[in-house]
Protein backbone atom coordinates (compact mmCIF):
# COMPACT_ATOMS: atom_id res chain seq x y z
CA UNK A 1 0.00 0.00 0.00
CA UNK A 2 1.26 3.47 -0.87
CA UNK A 3 1.89 6.20 1.63
CA UNK A 4 -1.02 8.62 1.35
CA UNK A 5 0.99 11.47 2.89
CA UNK A 6 2.25 12.80 -0.43
CA UNK A 7 0.56 16.06 -1.47
CA UNK A 8 -1.27 16.17 -4.78
CA UNK A 9 -2.10 19.14 -7.00
CA UNK A 10 -4.18 19.62 -10.10
CA UNK A 11 -3.40 22.18 -12.79
CA UNK A 12 -6.65 23.13 -14.52
CA UNK A 13 -6.31 25.52 -17.49
CA UNK A 14 -9.39 27.50 -18.54
CA UNK A 15 -9.37 25.67 -21.89
CA UNK A 16 -8.09 22.45 -23.42
CA UNK A 17 -4.41 22.46 -24.31
CA UNK A 18 -3.24 21.84 -27.87
CA UNK A 19 -0.61 19.10 -28.18
CA UNK A 20 2.26 21.60 -28.63
CA UNK A 21 1.21 23.56 -25.53
CA UNK A 22 0.77 20.37 -23.51
CA UNK A 23 4.22 19.20 -24.62
CA UNK A 24 5.85 22.48 -23.50
CA UNK A 25 4.03 22.35 -20.13
CA UNK A 26 4.93 18.70 -19.49
CA UNK A 27 8.58 19.22 -20.41
CA UNK A 28 8.70 22.20 -18.07
CA UNK A 29 7.19 20.08 -15.27
CA UNK A 30 9.55 17.18 -16.04
CA UNK A 31 12.44 19.41 -15.01
CA UNK A 32 11.02 19.96 -11.51
CA UNK A 33 12.67 17.80 -8.86
CA UNK A 34 10.22 16.31 -6.37
CA UNK A 35 7.39 15.26 -8.70
CA UNK A 36 6.63 11.59 -8.05
CA UNK A 37 3.78 10.93 -10.49
CA UNK A 38 2.02 12.91 -13.19
CA UNK A 39 -1.21 12.18 -15.03
CA UNK A 40 -2.82 14.00 -17.96
CA UNK A 41 -6.60 13.96 -17.88
CA UNK A 42 -9.22 15.02 -20.42
CA UNK A 43 -11.81 13.87 -22.94
CA UNK A 44 -10.81 11.07 -25.31
CA UNK A 45 -9.96 11.42 -28.99
CA UNK A 46 -11.11 8.08 -30.46
CA UNK A 47 -9.57 6.75 -33.70
CA UNK A 48 -13.03 5.83 -35.00
CA UNK A 49 -16.33 7.65 -34.59
CA UNK A 50 -17.96 5.88 -31.61
CA UNK A 51 -21.62 6.71 -32.31
CA UNK A 52 -24.00 8.45 -34.70
CA UNK A 53 -24.46 8.03 -38.45
CA UNK A 54 -20.69 7.95 -39.09
CA UNK A 55 -20.09 5.22 -36.49
CA UNK A 56 -17.02 3.14 -37.29
CA UNK A 57 -15.56 5.60 -39.78
CA UNK A 58 -12.10 7.08 -39.17
CA UNK A 59 -12.12 10.12 -36.91
CA UNK A 60 -9.35 12.42 -38.17
CA UNK A 61 -8.44 14.84 -35.40
CA UNK A 62 -5.51 17.23 -35.49
CA UNK A 63 -4.90 16.92 -31.73
CA UNK A 64 -4.27 13.16 -31.79
CA UNK A 65 -0.53 13.05 -32.31
CA UNK A 66 2.69 12.07 -30.57
CA UNK A 67 4.46 14.47 -28.22
CA UNK A 68 7.93 14.14 -26.66
CA UNK A 69 8.31 14.55 -22.91
CA UNK A 70 11.73 14.00 -21.44
CA UNK A 71 13.07 10.84 -23.06
CA UNK A 72 9.65 9.37 -23.89
CA UNK A 73 7.29 9.68 -26.82
CA UNK A 74 3.64 9.87 -25.78
CA UNK A 75 0.79 9.25 -28.22
CA UNK A 76 -1.91 11.69 -27.12
CA UNK A 77 -5.26 9.91 -27.11
CA UNK A 78 -6.96 12.72 -25.19
CA UNK A 79 -7.34 16.48 -25.25
CA UNK A 80 -5.25 17.66 -22.31
CA UNK A 81 -7.74 19.25 -19.94
CA UNK A 82 -5.87 19.01 -16.66
CA UNK A 83 -2.56 17.79 -15.26
CA UNK A 84 -2.58 15.96 -11.94
CA UNK A 85 0.67 15.69 -9.97
CA UNK A 86 1.80 13.89 -6.84
CA UNK A 87 4.79 15.58 -5.22
CA UNK A 88 7.31 14.70 -2.52
CA UNK A 89 6.44 17.63 -0.22
CA UNK A 90 4.57 20.94 -0.13
CA UNK A 91 7.64 23.01 -1.06
CA UNK A 92 7.46 21.59 -4.60
CA UNK A 93 3.93 22.99 -4.99
CA UNK A 94 5.20 26.58 -4.78
CA UNK A 95 7.80 25.87 -7.47
CA UNK A 96 5.06 24.42 -9.69
CA UNK A 97 2.85 27.45 -9.01
CA UNK A 98 5.60 29.89 -10.02
CA UNK A 99 6.33 27.92 -13.22
CA UNK A 100 2.62 27.86 -14.10
CA UNK A 101 2.29 31.60 -13.42
CA UNK A 102 4.98 32.19 -16.05
CA UNK A 103 3.55 29.60 -18.46
CA UNK A 104 -0.15 30.54 -18.44
CA UNK A 105 0.04 34.14 -19.60
CA UNK A 106 -2.53 34.08 -22.43
CA UNK A 107 -5.35 32.41 -20.49
CA UNK A 108 -5.99 31.70 -16.79
CA UNK A 109 -5.53 28.47 -14.87
CA UNK A 110 -6.22 27.13 -11.39
CA UNK A 111 -3.85 25.21 -9.15
CA UNK A 112 -5.85 23.08 -6.75
CA UNK A 113 -4.49 21.09 -3.82
CA UNK A 114 -6.24 17.93 -2.64
CA UNK A 115 -6.49 14.20 -3.36
CA UNK A 116 -6.89 13.49 -7.09
CA UNK A 117 -5.13 10.13 -7.61
CA UNK A 118 -5.88 6.84 -5.94
CA UNK A 119 -3.35 5.87 -3.30
CA UNK A 120 -4.47 2.28 -2.66
CA UNK A 121 -4.67 -0.52 -5.26
CA UNK A 122 -8.08 -0.97 -6.87
CA UNK A 123 -9.56 -4.04 -8.52
CA UNK A 124 -8.54 -2.61 -11.91
CA UNK A 125 -4.94 -2.20 -10.70
CA UNK A 126 -4.92 -5.79 -9.44
CA UNK A 127 -6.36 -7.13 -12.71
CA UNK A 128 -3.95 -5.13 -14.86
CA UNK A 129 -0.71 -5.39 -12.84
CA UNK A 130 -1.21 -8.29 -10.40
CA UNK A 131 -0.67 -8.48 -6.64
CA UNK A 132 2.96 -7.32 -6.74
CA UNK A 133 2.35 -4.15 -8.75
CA UNK A 134 4.76 -1.24 -8.74
CA UNK A 135 3.28 1.26 -6.26
CA UNK A 136 4.07 4.18 -8.57
CA UNK A 137 1.49 2.80 -11.04
CA UNK A 138 -1.40 2.57 -8.55
CA UNK A 139 -4.44 4.47 -9.76
CA UNK A 140 -3.04 5.08 -13.24
CA UNK A 141 -4.63 2.05 -14.96
CA UNK A 142 -7.24 2.64 -17.63
CA UNK A 143 -9.42 -0.49 -17.76
CA UNK A 144 -10.49 0.21 -21.37
CA UNK A 145 -6.97 0.57 -22.69
CA UNK A 146 -4.70 -2.36 -23.47
CA UNK A 147 -1.56 -0.26 -23.12
CA UNK A 148 0.11 0.65 -19.86
CA UNK A 149 1.09 4.13 -18.70
CA UNK A 150 4.09 5.91 -20.19
CA UNK A 151 7.04 6.15 -17.82
CA UNK A 152 9.12 9.31 -18.29
CA UNK A 153 12.58 9.14 -16.76
CA UNK A 154 14.26 12.46 -16.06
CA UNK A 155 17.84 13.25 -15.16
CA UNK A 156 18.05 14.76 -11.68
TrEMBL record:
Keywords: Methanogenesis. It comes from the Archaea. It holds the Pfam family MCR_D. This is Methyl-coenzyme M reductase operon protein D.
Amino acid sequence: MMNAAFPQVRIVPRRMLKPDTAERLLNMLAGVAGIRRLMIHGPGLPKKVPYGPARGNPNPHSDRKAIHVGDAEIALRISAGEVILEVEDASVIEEIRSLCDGFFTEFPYQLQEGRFMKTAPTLVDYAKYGPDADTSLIGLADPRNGEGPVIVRTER
